[in-house]
Amino acid sequence: MGELILCEQPIAATPYYIDELSLNIYSLEELSYYIFHNVYLMNSELMSVELCQWIGRDLKMKELKEHLLELLKDNVPLHIFIGNLLQACGYLTNKEIRDTVEIIKTYENKSEAECHKIRADRLMEKNKIIDAIYEYENILSNDENMTEALAGDVWHNLGTAYANLFFYEESARCFENAYLKSHKRISLRSLLFAYRCNRDVDGFQKACKRFFLTEEQAKEIGEEVTKISQAEDVLSFDNYLDQLRADYADETLYLNQLTTIVEQLKDDYNHICRI
Description:
Blueprint: E1 11-18, E2 23-27, H1 28-37, H2 49-57, H3 62-73, H4 78-89, H5 94-108, H6 112-125, H7 129-140, H8 148-164, H9 168-182, H10 185-197, H11 201-210, H12 215-229, H13 232-247, H14 251-272
Antiparallel strand pairs: 1-2
Helix pairs in contact: 1-4, 2-3, 3-4, 4-5, 6-7, 6-8, 7-8, 8-9, 9-10, 10-11, 10-12
């Protein structure tokens, strides 16, 4: 998890595996930490007999196991189950527990699609882009009772996810669907950005015509994309490559350095594509 967690409760020899974040949990303190820092990813899947059994069997906390099983039997809402779990651990402060429970209680009253969108958005924030894409697409495959505005927002965020992976053709399709659903200007701009980033001049021009953009508006979008390509970090990288060429007169050494850079970029890309 990247931080040391002081554990006063027993530590399990066999971890409890949380599939959604590919995470092994060895103690109740770790579970509390996970819940507190991933509160928007919580869903009813956490309320499982398997978790209760693990607490009783591997953490040797049989009373807590029986209490949680009773809550499951009574079909309590998620915020009650988690509140009891956090209270039994004592890792979080009372205020942190109250805040966590209130957040969960708030989105328990939202529609299923809204809850899934919140979780997908949090996955994006955590750079788990592939997981977020699966979540967004799952929402859209069950959109019978979804409002047009919510569907538009989901399509837009799905387009953003694909753009982060440089899948500009796919992102353009998503942004167009977003604009057709919600009519938000940002989705139209993102659609045109995707065409320009993909160097699809024909697609860009057709979209401008299809959505009645003036020549001036189309030119403005093009200038914005050009401005982004000249951003400080982009120019800094270009300057770094130029300096590398100057520093390594030997062609073999220069190519070795470029290979190292490319391999690092590939590793970074593979990292955000992880599931």
